[in-house]
Amino acid sequence: MKCFVYRSARRAGTYVYLRERDAFGLLPPEMAARLGALSLVLELDLGPGRRLAQEDPAVVARNLAAQGFHLQFPPPDPTAAG
Fold first, then answer.
1. What is the pTM of this model?
2. Range of 63's domain?
3. 57 - beta bridge partners?
4. CB–CB of 58/3 below 8 Å?
5. Which of 14, 25, 47, 75 lies 20 to 30 Å from 56, alpha-carbon distance?
6. What is the mean pLDDT of residues 66-72?
């Protein structure tokens, strides 16, 4: 499965995976508004053996198939009080 990864201009460390290039209409309007402008950073195939730095490729593929997008948030800050 081919996917396209975009970086949010408004939310640092937040990325959106889309199943179609520039298919921003797949995003709910409220989400798109919060993310701001999105810029393409990567095009990749989610095939067998594909590894991703912060996401489970199987979860990304399921979300792309079901809703057309996958949202990746930045990892938690280990220095933040919690």
1. 0.88
2. 2-72
3. none
4. no
5. 25
6. 96
CA 82/CA 80 separation, integer angstroms: 6
Distances (CA, A) of 65 to 10, 20, 62: 26, 11, 5
For residue 54, what are its two tokens? 């912060």
Q: Is 77 a domain residue?
A: no
Q: What's the rounded Cα separation, in Å, for the pair 64 and 78?
A: 29
- Let me know if 18 is exposed, middle or buried by CB neighbors in 10 A (0-12, 13-18, 19+): buried
Q: What would the mean pLDDT of 17-41 be, rounded to a whole number?
A: 96
- Give the residue among 53, 43, 36, 35 at the shortest CA–CA distance from 17: 43
pLDDT tier for residue 5 given thresholds of 50, 70 and 90 = very high
Q: How many domains does the chain have?
A: 1
Q: Is residue 78 part of a domain?
A: no
